[in-house]
Q: What sequence folds into this?
């Protein structure tokens, strides 16, 4: 997804402390960015970013600025090992998102809870390390006017 920045001019939200990610800090950074955004935004998140998106959307009026979200391979922080490594990230928010979303991964129950369209990861993997054209095609769903 980093290649999309250079190829398409998308902006990346740099988060604080990737070694000890704190949901509150990450949420505050997302909030600052969205409040300052001049217009509607489309979010692309993976791993913990998916969980951040869901938690933030359940708590922020700025979620009204979000046109849609592409959520890729959400982390399962409710697994015992990850719960201990990432305190504060569980339980995961399971409220319906207030904007359209596509969840790419093997998490149909989470997709249902978030109200997301669920696309199996196997259906769109054409090289995460490359341009990931299939993923970018899914993103276009939210970028159309």
A:
């Amino acid at each position: 997804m980093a290649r999309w920045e250079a190829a398409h001019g998308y902006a990346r939200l740099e988060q604080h402390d990737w070694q000890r990610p704190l949901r509150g800090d990450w949420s505050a950074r997302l909030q600052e960015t969205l409040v300052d955004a001049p217009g509607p935004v489309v979010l692309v998140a993976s791993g913990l970013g998916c969980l951040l998106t869901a938690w933030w959307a359940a708590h922020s009026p700025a979620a009204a600025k979000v046109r849609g979200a592409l959520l890729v391979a959400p982390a399962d922080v409710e697994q015992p090992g990850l719960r201990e490594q990432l305190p504060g990230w569980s339980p995961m928010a399971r409220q319906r998102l207030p904007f359209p979303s596509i969840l790419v991964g093997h998490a149909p129950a989470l997709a249902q809870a978030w109200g997301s369209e669920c696309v199996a990861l196997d259906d769109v993997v054409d090289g995460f390390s490359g341009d990931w054209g299939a993923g970018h095609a899914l993103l276009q769903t939210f970028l159309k006017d």
Q: What stands out?
A: DSSP finds seven helices and four strands in the chain.
